[in-house]
Amino acid sequence: MTQGRILVADDDSAIRTVLNQALSRSGYDVRLTSNAGTLWRWINEGDGDLVITDVVMPDENAFDLLPRIKRIRPDLPIVVMSAQNTFMTAIRASEKGAYEYLPKPFDLKELISIVGRALSEPRREQRVGDEEEGGENIPLVGRSPAMQDIYRVLARLMHTDLTVLISGESGTGKELVARALHDYGKRRNGPFVAINMAAIPRDLIESELFGHEKGSFTGAQTRSVGRFEQAESGTLFLDEIGDMPMDAQTRLLRVLQQGEYTTVGGRTPIKTDVRIVAATNKDLRQLIDQGLFREDLFFRLNVVPIRLPPLRERTEDIGDLVRHFFLQASREGLPAKQIDAAALEALRRYRWPGNIRELENLIRRLAALCPDEVINKEHIEAELERPFAEPLPEPAQESESLTVAVERHLAKYFSQFGDELPPAGLYQRILREIEQPLITAALAATRGNQIRAADLLGLNRNTLRKKIRDLEIQVYRGMR
């Protein structure tokens, strides 16, 4: 007994052979074709339980074929493969009704898993959009495996209102991802409103978010509309959510739980209909341990987590990004530039502490100031070797004792709560913060030897092992 019939369409005979072998070994009956015309005839005749098709075929593009398939067989799952591997390919696959999008080359185990999942799920009609590809205005650039995973997650989220939490270092493109979720999602016709928590005075954040009534505080001479009201029926992007004060966190949690809020100084609850996308460059779990972020709010925001990798983890995307930024610069009137292979290699070796934002600024600077049409390795090295401005040293820190450093840290910590007190349990939280780096430093100094580290710390070996386990410290021999 076979588990179902799979229709495979790809003009690459090697891919057809590999898919035929893998699917047949998994118990499926497989039919193979190299063109869209034969695939369409089989589907029109009622054949097949699932389709696997390449996008580009000799006689027709699969994105043109998918809507016709969905009209006559809306429940037929379709897995789309593509070597183009762009954000827009993933989005178009989702818009045209594909069950899943797979970038080439793909993992056969993953494909078999997708086929099994698609055939076991209850059949349901998938939405088919008639949106056209966004031309040259591509919001996200890169074909690395890390970006492919992000594209596929985003494609699945486009027709949902799920709350998303985007994490990543500064300059990795968190707002670009939030805008893509809005611009290609079900709320695209509504407003996109962004607010950066780190850029607003702490005592004004609640007014910025929820608005205020006339006379609600000194200087409130008129009623003010908040960002929630501005974003009604659209998307509200809460950037740097880790900088939100505790009072505002409590009010935001109430909005997420009840779907309504009150303005500052107001009494009447206001219903709200917005999609929340939040972003942070901080470790929110660490902030929770420090009592600076509400754990219940974290779980409300972290429905779908998306981690954006730093540029140093996706250096294979640098070539695409450079060409994209040079093209943008030329459209804005700057001289057209090209880059040679040695210069690209120099860019890939750089660590990029400022991530994509730093790369974009470099490319714009080269487009504007470099007199040569072709950017070479010498141009790149001259720019990247410029010394960074040295920050002014903080007074009395070079030789300050641990006690003074802790006192300064605690004074800053308490000041964040204003007239309020931090959450209870402060003693254990502070001990945990000090204990973890102390044990990590001892293990590093002894190259991961727990017996020597225990002697160095003056702890019983079993006590040290328990602390390593409780504090989730990673240990390996030779660590430094």
From TrEMBL:
<feature type="domain" description="Response regulatory">
    <location>
        <begin position="5"/>
        <end position="119"/>
    </location>
</feature>
<dbReference type="InterPro" id="IPR009057">
    <property type="entry name" value="Homeodomain-like_sf"/>
</dbReference>
<dbReference type="InterPro" id="IPR002078">
    <property type="entry name" value="Sigma_54_int"/>
</dbReference>
<protein>
    <recommendedName>
        <fullName>DNA-binding transcriptional regulator NtrC</fullName>
    </recommendedName>
</protein>
<keyword id="KW-0963">Cytoplasm</keyword>
<keyword id="KW-0805">Transcription regulation</keyword>
<keyword id="KW-0010">Activator</keyword>
<dbReference type="Pfam" id="PF02954">
    <property type="entry name" value="HTH_8"/>
</dbReference>
<keyword id="KW-0535">Nitrogen fixation</keyword>
<dbReference type="Pfam" id="PF25601">
    <property type="entry name" value="AAA_lid_14"/>
</dbReference>
<keyword id="KW-0804">Transcription</keyword>
<keyword id="KW-0597">Phosphoprotein</keyword>
<dbReference type="Pfam" id="PF00158">
    <property type="entry name" value="Sigma54_activat"/>
</dbReference>
<keyword id="KW-0238">DNA-binding</keyword>
<comment type="function">
    <text>Member of the two-component regulatory system NtrB/NtrC, which controls expression of the nitrogen-regulated (ntr) genes in response to nitrogen limitation. Phosphorylated NtrC binds directly to DNA and stimulates the formation of open promoter-sigma54-RNA polymerase complexes.</text>
</comment>
<dbReference type="InterPro" id="IPR025944">
    <property type="entry name" value="Sigma_54_int_dom_CS"/>
</dbReference>
<dbReference type="InterPro" id="IPR003593">
    <property type="entry name" value="AAA+_ATPase"/>
</dbReference>
<dbReference type="InterPro" id="IPR058031">
    <property type="entry name" value="AAA_lid_NorR"/>
</dbReference>
<dbReference type="InterPro" id="IPR025662">
    <property type="entry name" value="Sigma_54_int_dom_ATP-bd_1"/>
</dbReference>
<dbReference type="InterPro" id="IPR027417">
    <property type="entry name" value="P-loop_NTPase"/>
</dbReference>
<dbReference type="InterPro" id="IPR011006">
    <property type="entry name" value="CheY-like_superfamily"/>
</dbReference>
<keyword id="KW-0547">Nucleotide-binding</keyword>
<feature type="modified residue" description="4-aspartylphosphate">
    <location>
        <position position="54"/>
    </location>
</feature>
<keyword id="KW-0902">Two-component regulatory system</keyword>
<keyword id="KW-0067">ATP-binding</keyword>
<dbReference type="InterPro" id="IPR001789">
    <property type="entry name" value="Sig_transdc_resp-reg_receiver"/>
</dbReference>
<dbReference type="InterPro" id="IPR002197">
    <property type="entry name" value="HTH_Fis"/>
</dbReference>
<feature type="domain" description="Sigma-54 factor interaction">
    <location>
        <begin position="140"/>
        <end position="368"/>
    </location>
</feature>
<dbReference type="Pfam" id="PF00072">
    <property type="entry name" value="Response_reg"/>
</dbReference>
<keyword id="KW-0678">Repressor</keyword>
<dbReference type="InterPro" id="IPR010114">
    <property type="entry name" value="Transcript_reg_NtrC"/>
</dbReference>
